[in-house]
Design a protein that fits this description.
The chain contains one helix and no strands. With 49 residues, it is an all-alpha fold.
Length: 49
């Protein structure tokens, strides 16, 4: 394979992996924040009773 073509292919693959990793981080952060919000709501209910 042409070295320049191979380099472009590797660069493209690396940027795809970076985009996917960033998306995965955003999903994890959203899950974590929604989990902590739920916990705080239950905590408030428990303390109010």
């Amino acid at each position: 394979m042409n070295a320049e073509l191979e380099y472009q292919l590797i660069k493209s693959h690396a940027s795809e992996l970076q985009r996917e990793a960033a998306r995965h981080r955003r999903v994890r952060e959203a899950e974590k924040s929604s989990r902590s919000e739920r916990r705080s709501v239950f905590g408030k209910r428990r303390h109010e009773s």
